[in-house]
Amino acid sequence: MTKLQPPPLSGVSPKTVEKAVNALLKWRSSKLNTRKPQLLEQDEFFYLILTLKKIPQKGVSRINAHKIPLPNSLINPLNEAPELCLIIDDRPKSGLNKDGAKKKIQNDNIPISKIIKLSKLKTDYRPFEAKRKLCDSYDMFFADKRVVPLLPKMSGKQFFKKKKIPVTLDLKHHNWKEQQIDRACGSALLYLRSGTCSVVKVGRISMSREEIGKNVMAAINGIADIVPRKWGGVRSFHLKLLDSLALPVYQAVPDLKMKIDGGPKEENEKVLVAVEEEKAKEGRVEKKKGKIQEDPEFAKFLESNKEHLQTLRDEKNQYSDEEESDEDGRESTNEMGKLNSSTVDSLCKLVKEQNNVPAFVRLLNGYRAACHYGSESPTIVEDSHTFSKILTFMFHEADNIFRKILGISESNDRKEAILELKNTSKWKTLKPIVKSYLRSTLFLLNEVTDSQILASALTRLRASMVFFAAFPLLLGRLIKISVHLWATGKGTLSACSLLIIKDVATVFNSNCFETCMIKAYKAFIDHCKFVEPVLFKHQQFLKSSFIELCSQDLQKAYNKAMVSIQQLAKILQLGLRTKKKEAVKKICSWQYANCVDLWVAFISLNIRDYDLQPLLYTIIQIINGVAVLFPGPRYMPLRVKCVQWLNALSESSGVFIPITSLVLDILEYKIGKESSKPGKDFSFSSAVKLPKHWPKSRNFQDECVFSAIELLAVHFAQWSYHISFPDLATIPLIYLRKFHELTTIESLRRVVKRFIDQVEQNIEFVRKKRDEVTFSPNDQQSAESFLQLEKGGDNAPFTKYYTSVIEKAGSRNLVMNGKISSLEQKKSKGKRQQIPKNAMDVDLAVNAEGNSH
Fold first, then answer.
1. Where do the record's region annotations for Disordered lie (predicted)?
2. How buried is residue 709: exposed, middle or buried, by Cβ count under 10 Å (0-12/13-18/19+)?
3. Which of 151, 388, 459, 781 could form a disulfide with 299 if both were Cys (CB 3.0 to 4.6 A apart)?
4. What pLDDT score does 648 carry?
């Protein structure tokens, strides 16, 4: 067997590394000039990203770091006085304690500033916030090799995210300092993970450019000697800062070659002749390496992210570009040859000035090769500079060229504009070119993972939406990709995907609207099975954007909503009738609750303008049924949500919905004694069922009272000026006075007493005004207009009190969510409720689609 040899020195050129370092430092300087002052300290490291061709075998250690010596140490214990932390094993059989470790550190003059015992790490650093503070407090962590296997669960994800995984030390060894700590401080630490990518710190911002470059080269050579198969196992190296793009410094040569079939040979020869003439005129025979003139920022961005286009999914691509016919004007690789920078410039000029279709076809083949980069060998595109030019030109000019040739204005987004041209010679000539452009862009959307590139491609593709009218299969593919990116992406990417979905629903026929709505509803169901603080904002965006989509065609949305709500009712009826564990578990789940919440928001938004009374009646019955099915104290969060839904429906529809009995049941829960312990912090907003220990805690008592007061305040605020308010508030006041007499907790007594006083003041105000009226109780119209002028003022003390209670409820939830920014992974995995496969999804999504017709 022959031994694999490293690539030539030009494969990882120091000049390439130097250019990457300079570009990153320049990018950082530009960001510092425009960035707002940051509260937290910014990351100051250079990171080297290693991508392997294959996942390392199980025998490779993924806990112990490979130490790669660097010529310039990242942490200098002698000069920089770094904060180093040591985690020791204080279990009985370890033979080491904290005092002994301190003595050893002092005697050997080891720069360890903190020692943490394993037992202390278990108890004092269990909350997420404590782990985060510990991670940020020290420059580097060391740990006894006997406790290293236990640390991943104890330390949390922050240590992995910030690349501060504790370095293994053999504390049985006598020389801790020279052979272990000093060596680790002066080395790059490589952890081979369960995937193909690994990240290594190789430099600091404070270093000189030469020092950073030497470190990068040393790390690359050291890593290549460590990884399996040496250089033969390395796919690529990239260099980046924490928030920057990854710049390629090495890329392995692909093994396969690409074939692109296509256009007539005669046209290709004409294009080549025209290109050579343009070169001769402008003296551009030599290959140029200047800056791209069209949108240089975007071109640099694409060039930097070239590697993302190479990353392919392991499974077979269901959107394969070869599923349809090959009638897209592609040329063969051998006939067309490579595209370099000067050739692309000449082709672009021919297209812009002469509308040269063969030249545009050749550019389109280069664009296709760029979009398929990684799935086929990039033999057409000569280098990354050419690669960026092609993508930039096509993104900016393709739609304008299509419209100019066909005579369609930029403002014309009617699908009829394309359908009317279907039988013309212009369209028959241009159709395969348009098809190739759309297919290649869709292929790119399905392969790239960088959200900024995806958002840019979606924005450009949206301008060409009208051309999808001629390609129904591509339109279906666009809908599927857009819905997927809308549900899985975040921020700008989700927003761009939503615009595509809304445009499809508006421009094309009603069947497309139904398809968009059904797929979006399925995606919403799939992504609302769990609610966590980090996901809450995105789930709210999905809900609001889905409602916005439904509002484009209320009649069709009404039919789909009725089918879905009826399905929710069937699930509830089964649970009420059988009380089986599986049926009840479907209802007491975030998936069911989020579906109810979605349709409550839809009805609340549109009921004033449209007749949605059947939906309103059905959803109220469902909510009341859920509250009846789960009466116990552990289900208090779910019951609180039920009352919140009813309050929202009542306020939006103007219909009185009684909620008093549901709220007062919360005060009837049997709670612990006054001396009960406070209990751990728990987020009610991210749970539908409480842990077993929580109803016995003091926090549960407080939450019951606060929730009851807040829910009643929302209810009373809506009807505080109604002529029947004194009658509405009578029974709740009786219960609250009784509760005030029985409770011995002073903080709760004050809250309840103030609420009673304000409600009594409200009752007295309404009674005085009611005594002054002259109309009969049967005069419904006069009763509805009672105190409407006073209601518009909102200056009454009790109105201000209701508002303050509601505002405090919101701030209280924010504070609680801040304390519990992330639940412990171990407990959340063990306790959160799993939805049985093919149970809830089939009931809510598939059934909804099938019954809608």
1. 310-338
2. buried
3. 388
4. 92
**DSSP structure string for 131-160:** HHHHHHH-SEEEEETTTGGGHHHHH-HHHH
Under 8 Å between Cβ of 843 and 567: yes
Global confidence as pTM = 0.58
* pLDDT tens-place string over residues 602-622: 999 998 888 889 999 999 999
Q: How far apart are the first and last CA of the chain?
A: 65
Tokens of 110: 């080891």
Amino acid at 667: L
The three-point CA angle 646-648-651 to 5° equals 105
| Among 746, 730, 754, residue whose Cα is nearest residue 804 | 754
At 152, list the tokens.
């991943």
SS3 content of the chain, % helix, strand, coil (to 5): 60, 5, 30
- Contact call for residues 394 and 294 (beta carbons, < 8 A): no
Q: What angle do CA 52, 381, 273 make, to 5 degrees?
A: 165
Q: What angle do helix axes 510-526 and 590-606 make, rounded to 10 degrees?
A: 140
800 vs 796: CA distance, rounded Å: 6
Query: For residue range 526-549, what is the model confidence (pLDDT) as tens digits?
Result: 888 877 777 788 888 999 999 999
Cα 20 from Cα 220, distance rounded (Å):
14
Phi, psi of 55 (to 5 degrees): -70, 135
Q: Are 439 and 364 in contact (CB under 8 A)?
A: no
CA geometry: angle at 124 spanning 118 and 126, to 5°?
90
pLDDT of residue 269: 54
How far apart, in whole angstroms, are the C-alpha atoms of residue 489 and residue 69?
39
Q: In what order do the strands lie in the sheet with 197-204?
A: 197-204, 45-52, 234-240, 247-251
Rounded to an integer, the average pLDDT of 388-410 is 81
DSSP secondary-structure letter at 58?
A: T
Find, among 394, 262, 377, 267, the residue nearest to 330 by Cα: 262
Element (H, E) at 442: helix 425-447
Which residues, including other chains, have CB under 8 Å from residue 238's CB and lie 6 or more apart?
48, 49, 51, 246, 247, 248, 249, 307
Question: Which candidate, 498, 493, 430, places its Cα nearest to that of 467?
Answer: 430
Q: Does domain 11-32+42-251 have CATH number 3.40.1440.60?
A: no
> CA torsion, points 190, 191, 192, 195, in degrees to nearest 10?
-120
What lies within 8 Å, CB to CB, of 483 at 6+ separation is 497, 501, 516, 519, 520, 523
One-letter amino acid of 788: Q
Question: What is the SS3 assignment for 672-727?
Answer: CCCCCCCCCCCCHHHCCCCCCCHHHCHHHHHHHHHHHHHHHHHHHHHHCCCCCHHH
Burial class for 697, CB neighbours closer than 10 Å (0-12, 13-18, 19+): buried
Residue 795 backbone dihedrals phi, psi, to 5 degrees? -105, -5
DSSP character for 842? I
Whole-number Å distance between alpha carbons of 721 and 629: 33
Residue corresponding to tokens 């591509």? 474
- The β-bridge partners of 190 are 66
**Cα torsion 663, 668, 674, 680: sign:** negative
pLDDT tens across 159-194, in order? 777 777 788 777 777 666 665 676 777 788 887 766
Please report the sign of the dihedral spanned by the C-alpha atoms of residue 751, residue 753, residue 759, residue 765: negative
Specify burial of residue 290 (Cβ count, 10 A radius: 0-12, 13-18, 19+).
exposed
Any idea how long the chain is? 853
Instruction: Indicate the DSSP class of residue 610.
Output: S
Amino acid (one-letter) located at 68? I
Residue 156 falls in which region: left (phi positive, over 0), alpha (psi -120 to 50) or beta: left
Please indicate whether residue 459 or residue 825 has the higher confidence score (pLDDT).
459
Q: Compute the distance between CA of residue 368 and CA of residue 380 in angstroms, rounded to an integer.
A: 10
Domain regions of the chain by residue span: 11-32+42-251, 265-311+322-474, 549-849
578-to-37, 162, 583, 833 alpha-carbon distances in Å: 59, 51, 8, 20
Assess whether pLDDT exceeds 50 at residue 649.
yes
